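Z., the sequence and structure:
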Amino acid sequence: MEHDRRGTIVPGLFLIILGLWFLFRNLGLPGFRAFWPLFIILAGMGAWGRYVMAGTRRQPDDVFWGTVLFLVGMLFLVRENGWIGLATRDWDVLWPIFPAIIGTGAGAQWLLHPRRRHSLLWSLAGWLVALFGFSYTLGLIPEEAGLILIKLWPSLLILIGLGLVLQSLLEGWRRTS
């Protein structure tokens, strides 16, 4: 009977994190309050582990979710522990990091599965929103221009939708020719 390694990775990582938490608590080091994001990181690593171990049955969504969960977990881990200046930043300034994380996840998915062109569109959209978001929240764009961008953001959805429709039409056309 062959042993399935995929079924032991996530529980193993969970036990490591749980053990670290208890060890930190017993030694008087910062405990769960500061390290709860490790569970999000663990979920991301689990998705990546599932992707790597799947061989020919790899699911591109595991790349996206593995990247997004890992980066979100790292963001919260760094922020909760005050390791860099993020702890002093308000979410009103930091919110554009989330579209950047989604853009990174979609970009990683596209790099490993280039036929999924919609992933490239989502990546570019995420990074575009993050770029303008950070430019606005950090005061690099005048407030008037930022307000115009806020009103026009649905045009980004329209462009993405047009790209997806065009991709679908082109793929259908290629199949028939």
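The radius of gyration is 20 Å. The chain has two domains: 1-79, 89-171.

Let me know what you think.
H.
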